[in-house]
Amino acid sequence: MPDLILHHYAMSPFAEKVRAMMGYTGLSWSGVLHPPQPPRKKLMPLAGEYRKIPVAQIGADVFCDTRLITREIARLSGQPRLALAGCDEEVRAFVAKTDLEIFLACVMSAGSPKLLFRFWRSTSTLTVIRFLRDRIQMGRTATVRAASPKRAPGVVKAHLEDLESRLANQPFLFGDTPCIADFSAWHGLWFIREAAGSNAIAPYAQVNAWMDRMKAFGHGPNQPMKGKAAWAVARDAAPRELPQSEDSPLLGKPVTVTPSDYGQVPVSGTLVAQLADSWVLAREHAATGTVHVHLPRDGFTLAAG
Ligand SMILES: N[C@@H](CCC(=O)N[C@@H](CS)C(=O)NCC(=O)O)C(=O)O
Fold first, then answer.
1. Sheet containing 267-274: which strands, arranged edge to edge?
2. How many CA atoms lie within 13 A of 9 on its CB side?
């Protein structure tokens, strides 16, 4: 059985970042599909209250946020440049901007009746209504503001011009081979060109050629998995050994870890490690036994819970 289980849904751009990275590495994976909005009953025993997608699972270890999922893929594939820690400050700054400001602008500018129709065709009217209600509510409570529908196309245009010039003399954004930055830039533009079927990127020849190269990686060998089978994988495994934790007065105590940007639902558990890039919470559920939920420190806050 493949090591990595990806919890995702088809239209999720951040899940597409991971799927494309799996395609590039050629690692095989199992995929559990979840609804495009909470409640996600099959995910809850594994990731608790975490409300975003994707989530990755390796045995009884659960990784929230692509900052940590890509770290695991870099480790499994032996390709350090697929993780933020394996790249220099310039790449890290590019990814930070692309994963938040540019991503939100891509989603805003891709929104169209055509996209909604495609989504409706792949789900149901009720799901579309629930989805829209959920995202309006999520936008209202977010601490980051997406560019308005009027301003978003300008933000995307500036991004496309930047990519076009980066790609003038090299096949990938930071050199001859892809790094994490390529996958960050891919998923927002994938949403515009592939998911929404918009031709906004058509005038950018280098970007289109690069997108074709990224698309050609595919998603790698993968197989569907049922939610309950993923629970069984966790139940039959023990969480992996943790590295030495930093000191923290909260070690061994109940805590919450919460995203600071949007979808700010606190994830609860017992703090079992504070590492340089992540917090690890132990959680118990009858369906899964003990799992360790890994959440990044960057972009999240820890509190006594
Ligand atoms: N920082 C997160 C962002 C993930 C994210 O925003 N995912 C979107 C889907 S692409 C999401 O969860 N939206 C709300 C939802 O699906 O409930 C990451 O890198 O994984």
1. 222-224, 29-33, 4-8, 55-58, 61-64, 289-296, 278-285, 267-274, 254-259, 300-304
2. 16
**Angle at CA of residue 26, ends 21 and 28, nearest 5°:** 95
14 lines ligand 1 (CB under 6 A): yes
Distance CA 25, CA 220 (A): 8
Protein residue with least CA distance to atom 6, ligand 1 = 52
Atom of ligand 1 nearest to the CA of 36: 16
Q: What is the pLDDT of residue 1?
A: 67
Domains and CATH numbers, the chain: 4-80+222-304 (3.40.30.110), 87-216 (1.20.1050.10)
Distance CA 3, CA 28 (A): 8
pLDDT tens digits, residue range 36-82?
999 999 999 999 999 999 999 999 999 999 999 999 999 999 999 99
CA 57 – CA 30 distance, rounded (Å): 10
What amino acid is encoded at 61 in this protein?
A: D
Question: Which atom of ligand 1 sits closest to the CA of residue 15?
Answer: 10
Q: Mean pLDDT over all residues of the chain?
A: 96
